[in-house]
């Protein structure tokens, strides 16, 4: 991606969703939780299925319950960025919730809750069945979290390119970066497919990579509890140069 120092040229950003979800303002709290749930619902679901051996219906209910309780401001209030990474804190909260729900035999679905997102649990279950057995559910949680951040950044890039009339830029990015290695197009193939020069391919990819990196960092910022944590996660987990 880019080689310039992290943060150079970037405007000041609003507080992350992790901060916003603890706001006294219900609108900000709900919007922040939507952002968090996009990145964390599938890691939570798969973690509950694999770590706690819960059947699909129960894992789905636990995932929904997690975000319902978070909306009521009972989940994230005790989070301290100085004590743990936010993704570690989330996983600990899930563990406590599973134990609590088992103890209370909470089987009845909650009624009247705000629907934050349409969660495709069927797709998540299909992915679990396709994936090779993994001995470490925590590794699955972390890998799924990274995947969700990348997907969010890709959709943000797609939106920016469509809004700015740069669909060719996204198509070039898609052909080069969003395919398996065996199917990845060369610069020459992209140029032929899009009817542009190889130099234009390079320019369009440079733009798309820059916007993707910015979107990825923004998605990461929303799902971490401090600027330092965000920078650490960017370097260690995502491998971005700072």
Automatic annotation (TrEMBL):
Keywords: DNA-binding, Sigma factor, Transcription, Transcription regulation. It comes from the Bacteria. Residues 64-215 form the RNA polymerase sigma-70 ECF-like HTH domain. This is Sigma-70 family RNA polymerase sigma factor. It comes from Pendulispora rubella. The lineage of its organism: Bacteria, Pseudomonadati, Myxococcota, Myxococcia, Myxococcales.
């Amino acid at each position: 991606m880019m080689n310039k120092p992290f943060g150079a040229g970037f405007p000041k950003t609003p507080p992350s969703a992790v901060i916003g979800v603890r706001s006294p303002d219900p609108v900000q709290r709900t919007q922040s939780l939507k952002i968090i749930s996009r990145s964390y619902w599938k890691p939570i679901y798969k973690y509950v299925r694999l770590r706690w051996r819960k059947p699909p219906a129960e894992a789905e209910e636990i995932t929904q319950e997690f975000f319902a309780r978070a909306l009521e401001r009972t989940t994230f209030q005790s989070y301290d960025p100085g004590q743990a990474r936010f993704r570690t804190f989330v996983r600990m909260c899930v563990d406590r919730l599973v134990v609590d729900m088992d103890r209370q035999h909470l089987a009845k679905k909650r009624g009247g809750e705000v629907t934050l997102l349409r969660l495709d649990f069927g797709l998540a279950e299909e992915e679990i069945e396709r994936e090779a057995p993994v001995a470490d559910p925590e590794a699955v949680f972390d890998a799924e979290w990274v995947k969700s951040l990348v997907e969010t950044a890709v959709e943000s890039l797609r939106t920016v390119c469509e809004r700015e009339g740069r669909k060719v830029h996204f198509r070039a990015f898609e052909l080069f970066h969003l395919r398996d290695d065996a199917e990845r197009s060369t610069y020459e193939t992209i140029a032929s497919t899009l009817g542009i020069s190889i130099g234009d391919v390079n320019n369009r990819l440079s733009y798309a990579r820059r916007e993707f990196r910015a979107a990825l960092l923004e998605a990461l910022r929303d799902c971490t509890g401090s600027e330092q944590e965000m920078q650490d996660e960017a370097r260690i987990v995502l491998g971005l140069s700072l």
